[in-house]
Description:
By secondary structure, this protein is of the alpha+beta class. It is 25% helix and 36% strand. It has helices at 3-21, 41-52; strands spanning 23-34, 61-67, 70-73, 79-81, 97-101, 105-114, 120-123. The strands form two sheets. It has a four-stranded mixed sheet with strand order 2-1-6-7. It has a three-stranded antiparallel sheet with strand order 4-3-5, with no helix packed on it. A hairpin with a 5-residue loop joins strand 3 and strand 4 (79-81). 19% of the residues are buried.
Amino acid sequence: MHEIAIVSSLFEIINRQVAEHRIESISRVHLKVGEMASVEPMTLTACFEVLAEGSVAQGAELVIETLPVTARCVPCDALFRVVKYQFQCPTCRGDAVDLVSGKELYIDSLEARCQGESHEKAAA
């Protein structure tokens, strides 16, 4: 279960944002995860909830957006979505392709309340 290590790393980033922006509470964390990032969303969410306990992110919603695997064909330059790990260009049937997206894993934004503010503010 490497999700706990991933969430620990996410909290290092969150804690830096908390200090930098004087965040009092976090209500939502938006995460972007590529289909090939090898993470289980339910496990990631459970780990997030455990590590958030007692922090400014306690009770925050973890929103996970899954990003599709896309590739670009080297010979014909076609951009296509990879389905069922078939890395073959649907246009020219070539298999010389470059991965464009699908391995991402990052915090896209935080919805937070900063000290001295009465409304939510995005930071990240």
